[in-house]
Amino acid sequence: xxxVPLKLNRENSPVAPLFGxxxxxxxxxxxxxxxxxxxxxxxxxxxxxxxxxxxVSVLIMQRMSFPPYQKIQEGGKITIxxxxxxxxxxxxxxxxxxxxxxxxxx
Length: 106
Known about the structure:
With 106 residues, the chain is of the alpha/beta class. The chain has helices at 44-53, 66-75, 90-98; strands at 2-6, 24-28, 34-38, 58-61, 79-82, 103-105. The chain has one domain (2-105): Dinitrogenase iron-molybdenum cofactor biosynthesis domain (Nucleotidyltransferase, domain 5). It has three helices and six strands, in the order βββαβαβαβ.
């Protein structure tokens, strides 16, 4: 499953610029079915726990602080992909993912 932090509670929202502060997350399955859920976690590390519990294997994002990044790296179960610094809509980010046009963060 893919997770993408969003700015708004709508299907083709812009990607949220900062992972831990995102109010909403899109969860995308292998058939590109999208579910949007409110992020009520306090801080990026708690968001990482939530994503792990949901079975997320890929995270598409713009920026992330060090603590959640470190937690993901230590866990080794989520691949982080950088979508770029410019404003981008969810569907465009997913198209870039499918075309392997995202940057692997390691």
